[in-house]
Structures are given as C-alpha cells and as structure tokens.
Design brief:
54% of the residues lie in helices and 9% in strands. With 223 residues, the protein is of the alpha+beta class. The chain has two domains: 2-79, no CATH class; 88-213. The protein is globular, with a radius of gyration of 18 Å. The relative contact order is 0.13.
Length: 223
C-alpha cells in the first residue's frame, strides 16, 4: 500500500478553500481507506493510466509526494515518465459536451443550478488541462488552469464570473462557502456564448495540432 499527496498542497498553492488531495494505491479492497478522503486506485489501474498517458498520470508524475509506503518503495517514481497523452482531442470534445449539457440544464430550469454551475467550472478547468498537456506540452493542473492560457486562446470570462463558478464547485463538492444567488447565476449565463466560442476554438486548435503532429508511441518530453 502506498499513500501520496498531490494537487495544490504539492504545488504550493494552498488557500483557505483548498483541501488536501490524497491518493491511496492498494491491492483489492482495503477497509482502511474511504473514498470521502482518498482517491483510491489499484496498482493495475495506475499502471494502465501510465501506459495511456492520462492527464491524471501526468498530474501525479509532476505534482505528487510520497507520504507512506508499506514496502519502503516509491511506486510512482519506479513507473517513470508516463507515455505521451494522445486522447486530448476526444477529451476536449468530452468536456465541451459537459459544458453544453450544464448550459442546457441551466437554461431550461434552476432546480440543480449549483450542480450545473459546478459542472461548467469543471469543464473549463479540465478542457484547459487537456489542451495544455496535449497541445502545449506545458500542463496546468490547478483550478485556475483556464485562466492561465494566453492569447489567442485566453478565456473570455470575467474574473467575477469565474469566481462564482469556483464557489459553486466548492459548494457542490464540499458543501462549504457562500451561496450563489440568482443574480450571480444570471451574470455567468450571460457569458455562455463567449465560453462556447472559446471552447470551439480550443477543440479546433487541438484537432489541427493532432493532424500536424501525430507521432509514434514515445513518451512526451515534459519537464
């Protein structure tokens, strides 16, 4: 069994809103760990993610710290560098679909507005992470990843609206923080057309990159 910390605590970006992300690697079921407190993976699953070059594998490779090893080894370090991330186009499309679904839900009713606003935030962060890893070779894993992309693909969203989406995400996942009122939700929704155009540009750029830069199965060179 291995336990790692990852995320903001390893990037040095801890804020009062941050939690501590913990990974537990286990063989089979282990009653010592709860999914409320840990991301729990088997060793087999983690090896597969490494072989696929998944964003989470790269996240752990670049931003994790070993806390405990039952056998005294560093399992992730021994895996070495993940393979090149190849599914970035499909993943960018997937997160644009997440945005479209949340947008449709918000525009047809407000019964699940916090969940839907949280999903919008998730789509912005994750499409940016996938694009930065797959296209830019400069992966960004923080919750502000969408704000870190630069022209011509900088996010056309006001800082106020982004903060509202971030609050919704924290409310949805942790049940903490100030509520989002209808006026704030409306202000975010007024920017949905710009978000949609931005995501379309991200997907088109990713597709163009894939067409030009398709290569073999060697690992990506990311530091």
């Amino acid at each position: 069994m291995h336990i790692y910390a990852f995320g903001s605590v390893c990037r040095g970006e801890v804020t009062p809103d941050s939690d501590i992300d913990l990974l537990a690697l286990v063989d089979g079921h282990d009653s010592r760990f709860s999914e409320r407190s840990y991301s729990i993976y088997s060793y087999k699953k983690m090896r597969k993610m490494w072989e696929e070059g998944s964003p989470f594998a790269w996240h752990l490779f670049l931003e994790s710290r070993l806390l405990f090893a039952e056998d005294g080894t560093d399992f992730l370090e021994e895996l070495g560098q993940p393979m090149r991330y190849r599914k970035y186009v499909a993943d960018c499309i997937k997160f644009k679909d997440v945005f479209n679904s949340a947008r449709n839900s918000l525009e047809t009713g407000r019964e699940s507005s916090i969940f839907d606003l949280s999903a919008v935030f998730l789509s912005l962060r994750n499409i940016s992470t996938c694009y930065s890893l797959g296209v830019l070779n400069a992966p960004m894993f923080s919750r502000h990843a969408a704000l870190s992309l630069t022209d011509p693909l900088s996010l056309p969203l006001s800082s106020t609206s982004y903060a509202v989406l971030e609050r919704a995400r924290i409310l949805c996942t942790r049940g903490a923080g100030a509520p989002v009122d209808d006026q704030e939700a409306e202000a975010v929704m007024d920017e949905f057309d710009r978000i949609d155009s931005w995501m379309t540009s991200i997907v088109e750029s990713a597709r163009e990159h894939e067409r030009i830069h398709q290569s073999g199965g060697s690992p990506a060179k990311i530091s």
